Amino acid sequence: MDAVDADPLEGARAALGRQEWDAALDAVRAASVGSLRHQAEQADLEAEALWWLGRLDDCIDARERAYRAYDDAGDEQRAGRCAVWLWEHHAMRIHPAIASGWLRRARRALEGHETTVDYGRLLLREAEAAHGTGELDRAVELSGRAAELGRTLRVPDLEAEALQAKGRVLIERGDLAEGMGHLDEAMLFAVEGRLGPYATGKVYCSLISACEEVGDFDRAAEWTEATMGWSQRHPFAVFPGICRVHRAALLKRRGSLAEAEREAERACTELTHSHLANSAAAYAEVGDIRRRLGELDRAVELSGRA
């Protein structure tokens, strides 16, 4: 291939595919692009690498640049995809009003693209938003549609994420057996190795959280250990931090306070710039451990920070 025809972003895409986040960020920033479409993809790939490096504010900035460039280029589907991600990013930063605005933009951009994976992801995020506002029946309906679209398109990531979302809503609605059944089915995709890193982390963490909520601690412990094995292969990511919060809570329950504190303190550091709610949970865990050790002043300080 002639140099003039070479794809300037090929190296960045390849690094992301290998889950080499630092290398991907370097490659995408070093790429020289000309067309508006390439500029949009460059910003989008930069956002992806930054997300996995736990730099969520920088990720949001890059993703918003990608959205604007795709929108200017008239690429509604990719603009909608960015808007869906921006709902998730701002939700993690606990910016509900901004997140809601991006979800409305995503809905408008993806009208007419109802048979695509991106539309399925929109349905899934709308289901999660409905769950958050207590609209449980609507959340079940939307997540079920997303799961069906995932099966039709043969996209395991979408199907598994939708199954776990529906499972969590069913559990909250009081149907524990059916809800856990959906989570078990979602987990099959993960243990079979059929999911990408994002869907894998989300399904694992969702299952563990559900186990903790219903008091199935033996099951949670088993899956937490499996999660930590996965997260060690993805050291620069938001999910290891979240996994550590769960593991710290389980270790504390077993009485392994020193090990629990180490895990929770690492989670505090890993999540400070990415997932505020779970960062707060990590500080709360360290504070509770200090309380159990009789260090009340330190416990109050950490709980206040949480």
Mean pLDDT: 84
Question: Quick one: biggest sheet?
Answer: none
Can you tell me the residue ranges where pLDDT is under 50 for at least 5 consecutive residues? none
Structure summary, number of beta strands: 0
* Intertermini distance: 55 Å
Structural shape: globular
Into which percent range does the helicity of residues fall? over 70%
Given the helix and strand composition, which structural class is it? mainly alpha
Strand residues, percent: under 5%
Number of helices: 16
Order of helices and strands: HHHHHHHHHHHHHHHH
Rg on CA atoms, Å: 20 Å
Question: How would you characterize this protein structure?
Answer:
With 306 residues, the chain is mainly α. Helices cover 80% and strands 0% of the residues. The chain has 16 helices and no strands. The model has no long low-confidence stretch (mean pLDDT 84).
